[in-house]
Structures are given as C-alpha cells and as structure tokens.
C-alpha cells in the first residue's frame, strides 16, 4: 500500500544522517496525524535495520494499548504484513517480533528504573509532554544498541508526539528556547490534514474554548499570559439563577471529608446553570444529604447524581458506596433519584477542557452560568492555577491550608462542577 503523507509527516519521517542521534517531536493539534506518523516510523525502522530493538511507550500502559499499539497493527495490516509470517505478537512480553529479527517493545513509563537495562536503537514516546523530563533523559541514555554491520547510514532515533503544552514545560524549554542542532520540532495544525471530514475543524471550534482551540487544533504553543485553570470567565458567566422545584436537579459530587463539595445545577441540552453548592467541613455523605433536604424539602423534579467515579467505591464510614448512600438516603426523603456516573474518571486535562469550552467556546458562545450564591465555586474559578511551568493544578499543601484556611476550599468545588460537565459534554484530548 502506498501512503499519501502530509507535509509534517514527511518531515517527521526523514532521517538526517549528519547526526549520530536524531531527536524529533511531532507537535500537533487533534487529528493532525501524530500517532499515525509515529507508528509508521517505528515499523520502517524495524524493517530497514535487521535486529534492531525499539521501545514504544507512554506514561500509562492504557494509552499504549488503546492508541499506539492499535495503530501499529493497522499499519501492519495496510502494508500487507501477515501475522506469524512477517511478524508475530508476543503477548507475554508485550512486543512485536519481525521476520528479520527486529523487535519493538511496548511499555509504560510509570516505573522508568525498570527500563535501565535496555540497549535500544530507537524510542517512540506517546504524549511526550506527559512524560517527566528525567524519564526522557534516561531514555536518551538507552540509545546504545550495538550497530549491526549491515546498518548503513544508521542514526539512533528518539521521537515522540504530543499536543502543544498548556503551560511552559520541558518540551517548550527544550525544543523552543535553545535546542541542540540535532533536535527537531515539527508543528502541524489540525487544519493541514486534508483527509479529515469536511467541517471537522469548524465543529471543534464549537467544542473547545478559544485557548484550547489555538493549542489543540491550530497546534500553537499556549497563551502563557495567565496560568489560571479556568480561562475566559467573565461577568457574563455570573447571573442570578432561580431554583425551580419542578425541574431536575443535578447534584455533582466530590467526596472529601474536609470539605465535602457538592454543586447543584439545572441543565438544558447545551447549557448548565449552577444555582447552589454544599461545601461542608468535617462531615459525611449522609449528613450532606440531610443538608440538601433541609434546603430543598419541596423539590418535585428528579434528582440526578453525577460526580467523582471513585465515589462508587465503598465509603470509609459504611459498607455501602457513597452513591448507594446518597440514593438510599434521598429516596427515604421521598425524592426520585437516578445515579449517572462514569466507570472511571477522565484525565484532569480533559475535564478542564470540557469546562472551559462551556465557559466560552472558540466561537464566543457562553453555555455555563454560576449563581453568586456559589461562593466557593466562584472562589475556585478566580483562584485555581497551574503550577509554574507545569500543566498540573497547584493544589495547596497542608501547611498552606493551616496558614490560610480559605485554601482548604480550593479545587474540590471545581472538581465537582467539572465532573458534571464532563459527563454530558466530554472532550478527549
């Protein structure tokens, strides 16, 4: 099969023979062909250099299994390689072995010390910005497989692909600020992929907020003028919201003893209205249900419970899960209760993207509103920040909380609110 490659993919695949080591990053937006190019390069290297050992990995094995490995098998099938003839998959060792003696190992980087015994000819890193810089440096040191006499014009390769970083991390500092001559950064916006369905990027513009659209579609480095987690939140998002007893109430929960954080909302097909919050210190799930009943004893609409997927585990104070406790307790008050939660929590960055898209999308449409009554949630909106030089949220330490009590309420109400948005309007980055 003959592939029609995008310009960015061709530049990524090229082998610069003037260096003994080539380090290349394919940085692109959603659907820009990053994973496709990475898997193709891995196969080409395995075929071209008999006996080479390559390593393909990500920070979690779930990502390797569900995305990268799947793409490898698709390529092998499209090329016309036959299983157990041209290659074989060794499940017990999680590796591809080719007829010429080459092999590609598939691993996660949660425990990088386990990789120190490897001698490699190439490494592919999935979602490179999620991998710590120390892991990257350790992998560089593994590029020392003994060269085969038949390997003409061989260059050790370490390559990865990633979305642009939301905050200035090591990718930005390494490949933008002062890169070595053998370090290459290939940038590719989603819009350059002519093989995507017509109107694809226009739909993403409706889905993402402006900052995320610039990063994850246009492939640009993020706007670093602010490190606030919630972008583009203005007075337009704050309004008086009238509770209506005949409408469904969505209670979205973040379970924490101190504090417990629940947000209450009405929603339409495309909009969400947060009208109240239950942010209680030193409490339990059952007592929080009591507080809800005290505030809304006459409610006639359905109660729909959303929130943290880990709440489906057994409560530390009961043989029941937190959601079972809520359902039983609220039904005992006479409410009609339905539980709607995901089987597992998405990556935090996905929740943040979904929430920001509702605050204001790239087309300028506002779909998320918060009542002034939700003081703790608004405090989160205005104060929740990323760690300097990182895409991780800056959660206050125990010492900081002791010095400033208000910090205790940072992150939990936002988590509760973002679980609701993520359930109904998810974004996968």
What's the CATH topology label of the largest domain? Rossmann fold
Which superfamily, in CATH terms, is the homologous superfamily of the largest domain?
P-loop containing nucleotide triphosphate hydrolases
Question: Main sheet: which strands, in order across?
Answer: 3-4-5-2-6-7-1-8
Strand content: 15-25%
Order of helices and strands: HEHEHEEEEHEHEHHEEEHEHEHEHHH
Q: In which range does the helix fraction lie?
A: 25-40%
The separation of the N and C termini measures: 30 Å
What would you note in describing this structure?
The longest helix has 19 residues, at 61-79. By secondary structure, the chain is of the alpha/beta class. The protein is built from 13 helices and 14 strands. The chain is elongated, with a radius of gyration of 25 Å. The relative contact order is 0.12. α1 (7-13) runs parallel beside α2, α2 packs across α3 and α11 (375-383) packs across α13. It has an 8-stranded mixed β-sheet, with helices on one face. It folds into 2 domains: 7-198, P-loop containing nucleotide triphosphate hydrolases (Rossmann fold); 235-424, 2-Layer Sandwich (Nucleotidyltransferase, domain 5), CATH 3.30.420.280.
């Amino acid at each position: 099969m003959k592939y029609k490659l995008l310009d960015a993919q061709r530049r990524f695949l090229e082998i610069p023979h003037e260096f003994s080591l080539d380090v290349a990053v394919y940085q692109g937006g959603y659907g820009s062909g990053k994973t496709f190019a990475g898997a193709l390069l891995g196969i080409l290297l395995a075929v071209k250099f008999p006996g080479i050992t390559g390593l393909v990995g990500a920070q979690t094995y779930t990502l390797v299994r569900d995305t990268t490995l799947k793409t490898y098998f698709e390529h092998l099938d499209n090329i016309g390689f036959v299983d157990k003839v041209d290659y074989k998959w060794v499940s017990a060792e999680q590796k591809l072995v080719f007829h010429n003696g080459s092999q590609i190992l598939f691993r996660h980087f949660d425990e990088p010390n386990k990789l120190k015994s490897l001698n490699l000819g190439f490494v592919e890193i999935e979602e490179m910005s999620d991998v710590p810089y120390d892991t990257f440096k350790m992998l560089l040191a593994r590029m020392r497989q003994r060269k085969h006499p038949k390997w003409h014009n061989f260059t050790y390769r370490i390559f990865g692909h990633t979305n642009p970083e939301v905050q200035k991390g090591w990718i930005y500092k390494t490949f933008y600020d002062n890169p070595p001559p053998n370090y290459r950064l290939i940038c590719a916006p989603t819009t350059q992929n002519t093989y995507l369905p017509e109107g694809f990027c226009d739909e993403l513009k409706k889905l993402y907020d402006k900052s995320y659209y610039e990063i994850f579609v246009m492939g640009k480095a993020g706007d670093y003028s602010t490190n606030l987690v919630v972008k583009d939140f203005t007075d337009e998002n704050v309004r008086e919201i009238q509770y209506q007893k005949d409408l469904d109430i969505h209670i979205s929960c973040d379970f924490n003893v101190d504090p417990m954080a629940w947000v209450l909302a009405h929603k339409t097909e495309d909009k969400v209205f947060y009208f109240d919050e239950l942010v209680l210190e030193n409490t339990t799930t059952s007592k929080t249900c009591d507080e809800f009943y005290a505030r809304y004893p006459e409610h006639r609409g359905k109660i729909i419970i959303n929130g943290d997927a880990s709440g489906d585990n057994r409560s530390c104070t009961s043989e029941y899960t937190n959601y079972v406790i809520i359902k039983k307790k609220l039904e005992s008050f006479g409410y009609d209760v339905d539980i709607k939660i995901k089987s597992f929590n998405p990556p935090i960055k996905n929740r943040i993207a979904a929430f920001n898209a509702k605050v204001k999308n790239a087309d300028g449409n506002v779909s998320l509103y918060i009542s002034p009554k939700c003081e703790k949630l608004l405090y989160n909106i205005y104060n929740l920040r990323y760690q300097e030089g990182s895409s991780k949220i800056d959660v206050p330490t125990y010492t900081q909380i002791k010095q400033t009590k208000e910090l205790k309420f940072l992150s939990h109400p936002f988590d509760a609110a973002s679980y609701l948005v993520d359930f109904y309007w998810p974004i996968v980055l």
